[in-house]
Structure to design on (444 residues):
C-alpha cells in the first residue's frame, strides 16, 4: 500500500491510496471465503465451494472483485490512516478512481481531521484550589458543633442573626399552577441553613419575633412560589463552656487542648486532600479556557455528547432506572439534559485540543521509546501481547490516537509542575503541601 495526503480547507484532508496486485489478490481470496459461507451451490457444502465454481455461480470475476473492494475498503482506509498518521474525526467520503475491474486499486478519501490549535499563556496559568490551610474560624466552627449537642435553647428578644432557631408558620403558594398551597405551623428553621428557598437567609436577618417575611422563590423544576412566613419565636443556642471537664465527659478527648489539636490535624488532612483531589480537573479546565470555543468542530462535540448520553443510560440501567425516571427525579426536561451534556462535552473537547496544543507548544511529543513503554503497560493491563496490540492499533487506524494519549500524559505532568496553584484569596499554595500523603497510615 502506498498512501499520500493533501491538506484541504476547513480541517479536511485528502488521502490518495494505491494497493498493489498482491494486496488485491488477498482481498479477493478473503471475499471468496466469505461468499462461500453464504451462497448455496448444489453438490457442495457451504464454505467448501471451490473458488472457480463460486466465481461462475455469482456471475464472474467482476462480481467477486466488486465484493472484495466493498468488504475490504474499511480495512484499506484504516491502514492508510495509520500509515499517514492523520487523525480523522468524521466519516470519509471515498471514491475509487481506478482498478474497479482490474489492475492496482486506487481510491481517494476526503475526511475531516482534528484541528491543530495554538495556545498562549500556559506558563502563566494560576489555578484556584480549595484552601489547604485551617483557619481559627474553621476550628472554632468544628468545635462548636460538638458543643451544640449539649446546647441549651434560650428565648431571645433581639434581631435575628445567623444560627438562630426561628419558629414560624409558613405558607407556600405556587404561582401560575393549580397546586394547593402548602401550609406548616410551628416550623422550626435554623437561620443560615438555606433549606427553605434562596433569599430567606439574607432577608430574615434583623427581623424579630412577631414580624412577617414574604418573598418569591424557586421550588424546583422552574416553578416559582410565594413564601409567606409569620415569625413567632426566636431562640439561640447557649453553648456549654469549653472546659477540660466537659471535653472529657462528652467527647473522646481528655482536654480542650487535645481536642483542638486533634481537630486541627484532621481538618488539615481533609483540606489538603480536597485541594489534591481538585488539582487535575482545575488545571485542565484552566488550560481548556485558553482555547477559543469557536474552533470546536461540531462533529467532535456531537460525538462526545452522544458518548456521555450513552454512558448515562448505561449507569441508569445498572441502577435499574430509565431516562424518563431520571428526568423526573432531577426536574429536567430532555432538552435541558441534552444542553447540560453538550456543555460538558464542549468543555471536554476544549481540554483535549488544549492538551494537544500544549504538547506542541512545549515540545512534549513522545519518543518512540516512550510510546513503546506505554504500549507495553497498556498491553499488560489488558492481558494481551504487546505486538498484538500494536498490530490492532495499526489495522484499526488508531496509531495517531494512541500516540496522542501518550503525549497528553506528558502534558499533564508538565502542567502539574508548571502551573501556579492559589487559594480563593489569591495566595500561592505550597506545591510540596499538595504532594503530601494524607492517608491515616502515613500520619500514624
Amino acid at each position: 500500500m502506498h498512501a499520500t495526503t493533501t491538506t484541504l480547507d476547513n480541517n479536511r484532508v485528502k488521502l490518495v491510496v494505491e494497493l498493489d496486485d498482491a494486496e488485491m489478490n488477498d482481498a479477493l481470496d478473503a471475499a471468496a471465503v466469505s461468499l462461500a459461507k453464504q451462497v448455496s451451490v448444489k453438490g457442495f457444502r457451504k464454505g467448501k465451494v471451490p473458488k472457480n465454481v463460486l466465481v461462475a455461480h455469482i456471475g464472474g470475476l467482476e462480481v467477486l472483485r466488486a465484493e472484495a473492494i466493498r468488504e475490504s475498503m474499511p480495512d484499506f482506509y484504516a491502514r492508510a490512516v495509520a500509515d499517514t498518521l492523520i487523525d480523522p474525526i468524521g466519516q470519509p467520503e471515498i471514491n475509487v478512481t481506478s482498478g474497479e475491474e482490474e489492475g492496482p486499486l486506487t481510491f481517494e478519501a476526503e475526511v475531516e481531521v482534528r484541528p491543530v490549535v495554538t495556545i498562549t499563556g500556559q506558563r502563566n496559568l494560576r489555578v484556584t484550589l480549595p484552601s489547604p490551610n485551617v483557619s481559627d474560624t474553621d476550628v472554632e466552627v468544628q468545635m462548636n458543633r460538638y458543643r451544640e449537642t449539649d446546647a441549651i435553647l434560650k428565648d431571645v428578644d433581639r434581631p435575628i442573626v445567623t444560627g438562630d432557631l426561628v419558629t414560624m408558620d409558613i405558607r407556600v403558594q405556587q404561582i401560575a399552577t393549580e397546586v394547593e398551597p402548602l401550609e406548616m405551623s410551628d416550623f422550626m428553621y435554623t437561620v443560615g441553613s438555606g433549606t427553605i428557598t434562596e433569599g430567606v437567609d439574607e432577608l430574615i436577618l434583623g427581623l424579630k419575633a412577631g414580624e412577617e417575611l414574604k418573598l418569591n422563590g424557586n421550588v424546583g423544576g422552574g416553578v416559582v412560589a410565594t413564601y409567606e412566613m409569620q415569625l413567632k419565636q426566636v431562640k439561640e443556642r447557649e453553648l456549654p463552656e469549653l472546659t477540660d471537664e466537659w471535653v472529657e465527659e462528652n467527647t473522646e478527648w481528655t482536654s480542650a487542648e487535645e481536642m483542638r489539636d486533634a481537630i486541627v490535624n484532621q481538618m488539615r488532612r481533609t483540606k489538603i486532600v480536597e485541594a489534591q483531589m481538585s488539582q487535575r480537573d482545575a488545571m485542565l479546565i484552566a488550560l481548556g479556557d485558553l482555547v477559543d470555543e469557536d474552533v470546536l468542530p461540531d462533529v467532535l462535540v456531537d460525538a462526545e455528547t452522544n458518548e456521555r448520553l450513552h454512558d448515562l443510560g448505561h449507569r441508569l440501567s445498572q441502577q435499574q432506572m430509565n431516562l424518563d425516571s431520571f428526568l423526573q427525579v432531577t426536574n429536567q426536561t430532555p432538552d435541558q439534559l441534552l444542553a447540560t451534556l453538550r456543555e460538558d462535552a464542549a468543555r471536554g473537547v476544549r481540554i483535549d485540543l488544549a492538551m494537544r496544543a500544549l504538547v506542541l507548544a512545549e515540545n512534549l511529543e513522545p519518543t518512540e521509546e516512550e510510546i513503546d513503554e506505554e504500549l507495553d503497560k497498556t498491553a499488560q493491563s489488558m492481558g494481551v501481547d504487546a505486538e498484538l496490540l500494536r498490530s490492532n492499533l495499526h489495522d484499526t487506524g488508531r496509531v495517531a490516537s494512541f500516540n496522542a494519549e501518550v503525549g497528553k500524559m506528558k502534558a499533564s505532568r508538565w502542567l502539574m509542575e508548571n502551573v501556579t496553584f492559589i487559594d480563593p484569596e489569591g495566595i500561592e499554595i505550597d506545591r510540596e503541601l499538595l504532594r503530601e500523603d494524607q492517608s491515616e497510615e502515613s500520619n500514624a
Notes: Residues 258-435 form a domain with the Trigger factor, domain 2 fold (CATH 1.10.3120.10). The chain has a mean pLDDT of 91. The first helix runs from residue 21 to 36. The chain has 14 helices and eleven strands.
